[in-house]
Design goal:
By secondary structure, the chain is of the alpha+beta class. It has two domains: 1-53, no CATH class; 54-89, no CATH class. The protein is 28% helix and 29% strand. It is built from four helices and three strands, in the order αβββααα. The termini are far apart.
């Protein structure tokens, strides 16, 4: 029996609760968080996020040197430059 199978057999019967925070508006644009949480086993079984704001980074980066993407995108937003840099690189 694998470790995963053993963990499943030891789990308490839990009720998975869906929790949604949408919109989270203290950022530029809207952010939504969607989760499924098993509180009995203290486990997040599923989690994803969405953002409904189109910034158009891919549009205005056309024709630019890809090596410049991190420098350009990091300066577009005054709040989350590190995230844009990481994603563009």
């Amino acid at each position: 029996m694998t470790a995963t199978e053993q963990a499943k057999t030891r789990r308490k019967p839990g009720q998975i609760v869906e929790m949604v925070w949408d919109p989270i508006t203290r950022i530029i644009g809207n952010l939504g968080l969607y989760t499924k949480i098993d509180f009995a086993n203290r486990e997040v079984t599923e989690c994803h996020s969405t953002s409904s704001l189109f910034r158009g980074y891919s549009v205005f980066m056309k024709g630019k040197d890809p090596r410049d993407a991190g420098f350009i995108t990091s300066r577009i937003c005054g709040i989350c430059g590190d995230n844009h840099t990481t994603c563009s690189v």
